[in-house]
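Incident review: delayed structure delivery

Summary: a single-chain prediction request sat in the queue longer than the usual turnaround. Root cause was a stuck worker, restarted by the on-call engineer. No data loss occurred. The affected request and its eventual output are reproduced below so the record is complete for anyone auditing the incident later.

Affected input:
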Amino acid sequence: MIRHYIGKARWSWVDIEDVAASLLDPEKHNGQIYRLGYQAATYDQIAAIFTEVIGQPFSYEARPPEEFYRNVLAAGAEPAYMKCVFDLFAELTNGTAVKPDEVFDNLPAIIGRQPRTWAAKKHGHKFRYQLN
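Output delivered after worker restart:
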């Protein structure tokens, strides 16, 4: 079960290894601001990808953003920043977020290669689970 706080929203994704690749040339990227995201999907679609790639069933359960906010504050997270994250999750859940699924074609120029697709394909073995 994948649980998250954005409802049925579709938003853009970027592989962490692609983000890391952009950090390998600090002189080239120093002071630059990049909007990243080259694939857009809902968590239901992500669960379907995990099911296909890993060969085990995955599903998505949307949780209320208020639960996220309560939990992170109880864990001692910084309140002002977490309120911003909560507000984004609430906008995604209620459909008022602006262009959350916008994708960009800038990664090849930034990192010098095509972007990776879905870490589940490379790291799927880490997501395998045993049923008791």
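Verification: The longest helix spans residues 79-94.
Action items: add queue-age alerting; document worker restart procedure.
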